[in-house]
Amino acid sequence: MSISLQKGQKVSLTKPGGGTLTRVRMGLGWDAVAKKGLFGKGRAQSIDLDASCLLFDASGNLADQVWFRQLRSKDGSVLHTGDNLTGEGEGDDEVINVDLQGVPANVTQLVFTVNSFTGQDFSQIANAFCRLVDETTGQEIARYDLSGAGQHNAQIMAKVSRDGDGWSMTAIGATATGRTFQHLLPAVSTHL
């Protein structure tokens, strides 16, 4: 059963029958809001949202990053499946796979961000969501709705943190401004 997360809500990533998750997939999906054109006809926009995963150590230092220009973490535990430039199609438009057991011991938090590389703000984006899926079963664990009007063009979606022997996920949902993850680092640091 999936949990629909609210901003600031935390969910443990332990399996219902016990044990912890070992492989998760963070999916990002979106659609462009049709712009009113001549004679009231709507025309589709080209909106390029980008998902990124930022790996931080216990001191809050950026240890590695996975984004459209670096699709794999240095150790191989985090893998971005590729850049979707339009959001067309059903389901997840961009996917980041994480082997939680392979994440280096010095990494204590994974922060997932989304930004509009083409610069449109979120008032022009519909049906945006991020979701966490148990890769071993294909079951959706948690979903966070990112849609909503706003003048921001980026969002700090969620973080996955070491929690004892396992991991937990916290929905952040903080708005930000920036076309790549580098622009978001000052805003991300406040959530570590």
Automatic annotation (TrEMBL):
Enumerate the spans annotated as TerD domain: 1-178
Query: Which InterPro entries does the record associate with it?
Result: Stress/Tellurium_Resist, TerD
Q: What is the lineage of its organism?
A: Bacteria, Bacillati, Actinomycetota, Actinomycetes, Streptosporangiales
The protein's name is TerD family protein
Please name the source species. Actinomadura decatromicini
Transmembrane annotation, as ranges: none
Among Pfam families, the record links this protein to: TerD
